[in-house]
């Protein structure tokens, strides 16, 4: 009898978890907010293919008068107070894993696989910025 109750609880818990897992993320927002998201997406999706790609972002940045390369370099400069053009790999990895929109360890390792490093193992963020904004030759 006890095992039957445990089985019932397991099924109920599994059903509840499945419902949570399949819930619609848009249910968290009001209809007006969802419409704003759709409008913003369509403004960024310059080629109207339903996917926001690098060229869509470049075009959006240029329309806003923002240089994406300079914006990214400015962000990296915050981690380079000495102005050497590099950031410490271990410190940067820790930030990626623990701050804001946290990266997974797999995402960090994937990024570091393409990241230019100097002889000391520090990240050459100027070269990384170029790869982010222009693509990696290996990708093409």
From TrEMBL:
The source's domain of life comes to: Eukaryota
Name one matching Pfam family: EF-hand_7
The protein depicted here goes by the name Myosin regulatory light chain 2, atrial isoform isoform X2
UniProt key word Repeat: yes
Q: Which UniProt keywords apply?
A: Calcium, Metal-binding, Motor protein, Muscle protein, Myosin, Repeat
Upper taxonomic classification of the species?
Eukaryota, Metazoa, Chordata, Craniata, Vertebrata
GO CC term (a single one): myosin complex
Q: Please list the GO terms describing molecular function.
A: calcium ion binding
For this protein, the parts annotated as crossing the membrane are: none
Q: Where is the EF-hand domain?
A: 32-67, 69-102
């Amino acid at each position: 009898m006890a095992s039957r109750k445990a089985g019932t609880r397991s099924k109920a818990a599994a059903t509840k978890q499945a419902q949570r897992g399949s819930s619609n993320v848009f249910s968290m927002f009001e209809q007006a907010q969802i419409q704003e998201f759709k409008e913003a997406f369509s403004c960024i999706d310059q080629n109207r293919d339903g996917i926001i790609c690098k060229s869509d972002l470049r075009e959006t940045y240029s329309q806003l008068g923002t240089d994406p390369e300079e914006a990214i370099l400015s962000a990296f400069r915050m981690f380079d107070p000495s102005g050497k053009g590099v950031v410490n790999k271990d410190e940067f990895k820790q930030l990626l894993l623990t701050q804001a929109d946290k990266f997974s360890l797999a995402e960090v390792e994937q990024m570091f696989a393409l990241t230019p490093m100097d002889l000391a193992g520090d990240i050459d963020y100027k070269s990384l910025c170029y790869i982010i904004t222009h693509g990696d030759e290996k990708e093409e």
